[in-house]
Automatic annotation (TrEMBL):
This is Endo-beta-1,4-mannanase F. The keyword Zinc-finger does not apply. Residues 18-54 form the CBM1 domain. One of its GO terms (biological process) is cellulose catabolic process. Residues 1-18 form the signal peptide. The keyword Signal applies. Transmembrane segments: none annotated. Pfam families: CBM_1, CBM_X2, Cellulase. It comes from Penicillium atrosanguineum. GO terms for molecular function: beta-glucosidase activity; cellulose binding. One of its GO terms (cellular component) is extracellular region. Keywords: Carbohydrate metabolism, Cell wall biogenesis/degradation, Cellulose degradation, Glycosidase, Hydrolase, Polysaccharide degradation, Signal. Belongs to the glycosyl hydrolase 5 (cellulase A) family.
Length: 656
């Protein structure tokens, strides 16, 4: 997944017109906004949830069908590209241009070979330089400025051992078929960023990223597979040549999340792995000894387990890389799913990991992207998820690389981490670590959600002692300190039982009174005798927020996102948004009727709603849905704590 931040940014900053502007969203599951791109752009599927307007000339989809030649079975090292490409014309041309350059063949210095199992074990924990060199059309085009070396120092200081560097080449080609020349300045920039990482002794995995859907999508009907293979070989030959002399800290990943619908697509993706290996080996230098992380369809655990076949005939040590953003509704805040952690939730994650490990018992496996973002997931549920995912991945010898789009985890401007507790569990936990965690609702059939990651006190009510249920997991509480610098006294300020921690009324009264203005009043940092979790619990004074207006006429606000100024009443986040027409029909996703009470009729973050520091936002897509339904719709914005889905919620009506 590469898009979470981009979606948020685009939704906030771009007015989506009847014609979608360049790089705007133009489709995807749950999206019902404009689908026609502005002149010169065309709508291309990035993943099931996100289609984007990209420059029309760059996409392969307009090229008419050519029958693909199936992969030869004689793809041994040293075999000419003629066996990999469909036409002798191409083969001759490409063979002529692939002659290894002296740069690649005369690397200065030596290479310390490393096995794939060692490389993979050493790279954990890893961090992704998301939405940066992969941004389209160029680095800096999305929400991150061009990366600077100090960012990697911050990443290393936090305890990460590797950086995955996603790179999109799509808009950096200066030549076309058959050479597909890549802008040398761009190759140099990629090389320079890799040097920033390796000079710190960090491992890195470098890839070809959004090219997967921009021009290398083998699932598109009419895709010119010959062109994709030719371009892919030429791209990796040039990248392989540029990076041929890099140390063994540098691994290559052929392509990010290649779209794949069926076994035929998967066969072609297996072939792309082979073409990639051929290209980097032809480029020479140290590449024949370099670790590679090969990919299956979508870098999805199921498609990879079903259809991935390792190429034969190359000497490169290899691992398999896959990505994991599951369950989708929790990770992407879809359909009001703000809880995680039931036995069934855990069993699903574990069986997903086991499926891949079970199919590839002797192959090192890298989880190259996962993320429960502090921007949109509830902290207690998030910490349970991170703890469970990391420990169980490590238990199956799967190394993990955190996705970070620049808005999720590291604030690159200040060098601070937005959720230090997740980072601590990611960087320090082991397979056997038992982390102490705030408990929270796990049962999706309830109407009320509670969480010990926050100590909620309602405005206008007396301050009384409050209990925070905790999962101590065998550890004991050793210290509570608060954001005023005080260390809390056991007995006077709090007490501990086997099931939780109780803060006394006298302690809470130091921070709160019935009249305290709503907001986050103080933080409590908890330390335990064991484990790597050190949760920060927010003391929150809350009352129901108010909106500056409570209705609008849909037709008069259509075509753009609608920002509604809000006076927040505690945490400055939206928990969920319900959308029901005045006829009682769910505006979108009527299947949510089968979900629990906190999920019914709920919409999806970023597709239908969003927020910023002073507004809640209905997306143009949500407004379009109302207009096409032709019925006045009530949007109910819900906040934490979620109380019966009714209290601590406000209505906004879009009339037709
Ligand atoms: C497909 O791509 C190949 C290689 O770039 C090219 O020679 C051929 O003309 C293309 N076919 C069509 C139908 O465009
Ligand atoms: C291998 O993958 C297939 C397809 O996803 C799955 O059905 C099977 O259970 C997996 N095998 C093991 C041993 O995990
Ligand atoms: C929102 O509107 C619905 C439908 O009229 C109503 O049942 C609900 O109580 C309202 N909620 C709030 C918080 O006003």
């Amino acid at each position: 997944m590469q898009v979470l931040g981009a979606v948020a940014i685009l939704a906030l900053t771009q007015a989506v017109q009847a014609q979608v502007a360049g790089y705007g969203q133009c489709g995807g599951s749950g999206y019902s906004g404009a689908v026609i791109c502005t002149n010169g752009f065309e709508c291309v599927s990035q993943n099931a949830w996100y289609y984007q307007c990209v420059p029309g000339t760059a996409a392969a989809s307009t090229i008419s069908t050519t029958t693909a030649t199936t992969a030869t079975t004689t793809t041994t090292k040293g075999t000419t590209i003629a066996t990999l490409t469909p036409t002798t014309t191409t083969a001759t041309t490409t063979t002529a241009t692939k002659t290894p350059t002296s740069t690649a063949d005369s690397c200065v210095g030596s290479f310390s070979p490393i096995s794939a199992p060692d490389f993979v074990a050493n790279l954990h924990p890893g961090w992704n330089l998301g939405n940066t060199l992969d941004a389209t059309p160029d680095e800096g085009s999305w929400n991150n400025a061009p990366v600077v070396a100090s960012t990697f120092e911050d990443v290393k200081a936090a305890g990460f051992n590797s950086v995955r560097i996603p790179v999109t080449y799509a808009y950096h080609f200066t030549g076309s078929s058959p050479d597909w020349t890549v802008d040398p300045d761009w190759l140099q920039r990629v090389s320079d960023v890799i040097d920033m990482v390796t000079s710190l002794g960090l491992y890195t995995i470098v890839n070809v990223h959004h090219d997967s859907w921009i021009w290398a999508d083998v699932t598109q009907s009419g895709a010119n597979i010959t062109m994709i293979e030719e371009k892919f070989y030429r791209l990796w030959f040039q990248v392989g040549t540029k990076l041929a002399c890099n140390p063994s800290l540098v691994a290559f990943e052929p392509i990010n999340e290649p779209p794949c619908n069926d076994a035929d697509d998967a066969t072609e993706i297996n072939k792309l792995n082979t073409i990639f290996l051929q290209a980097i080996n032809d480029a020479g230098g140290f590449n024949s000894q370099r670790v590679v992380t090969l990919v299956g369809g979508g870098e999805d655990s199921i498609k990879t387990s079903e259809w991935f076949e390792a190429p034969s005939g190359f000497s490169n040590p290899y691992a398999i890389q896959f990505h994991y953003y599951s369950p989708y509704d929790f990770i992407f805040s879809a359909w009001g799913k703000t809880i995680w952690g039931s036995d069934a939730d855990k069993a699903t994650v574990l069986s997903d990991l086991q499926l891949l490990r079970g199919n590839f018992t002797n192959v090192p496996i890298v989880l190259g992207e996962y993320d429960a973002s502090p921007t949109n997931t509830e902290p207690a549920a998030r910490w349970k998820y991170v703890d469970y995912l990391i420990r169980n991945a490590l238990g199956l010898d799967v190394s993990c690389i955190l996705w970070d789009n620049g808005l999720d985890h590291l604030d690159r401007d200040t060098g601070t981490w937005r959720d230090p507790n997740s980072i601590s569990m990611i960087t320090k936990s082991t397979a056997s670590t038992q982390n102490s965690l705030p408990d929270s609702t796990e049962d999706s059939s309830t109407t009320t959600q509670w969480s010990s990651a926050s100590l909620f006190h309602e405005y206008g009510t007396q301050v009384v002692a409050q209990s925070l249920p905790f999962l101590f997991n065998g550890n004991t509480l050793s210290l509570i300190s608060d954001s005023t610098g005080s260390i809390l006294q056991s007995g006077t300020d709090y007490s501990v039982s086997s099931s939780g921690i109780t803060l006394t009324a006298s302690y809470l009264s130091k921070h709160l009174s019935p009249a305290t203005s709503p907001g986050v009043i103080a933080d409590l940092t908890l330390k335990f005798s064991g484990g790597e979790s050190s949760p920060i619990i927010q003391i929150v004074q809350w009352k129901t927020p108010t909106l500056s207006s409570t209705s609008a006429v849909a037709s008069s606000v259509s075509g753009a996102d609608l920002s509604i100024p809000i006076t927040w009443g505690g945490l400055t986040t939206v928990a969920a948004v319900k959308a029901v027409t005045t006829s009682g029909v769910y505006l979108v996703d009527d299947f949510t009727v089968y979900l629990g009470p906190l999920q019914q009729a709920r919409t999806t973050y970023s597709s239908q709603y969003n927020w910023d520091s002073s507004d809640v936002i209905l997306t143009s897509s949500a407004i379009s849905s109302v207009i096409s339904a032709g019925v006045t719709t009530i949007f109910t914005f819900e906040f934490f704590p979620r109380v019966n889905g009714v209290v601590n919620a406000v209505n906004f009506t879009l009339t037709v």
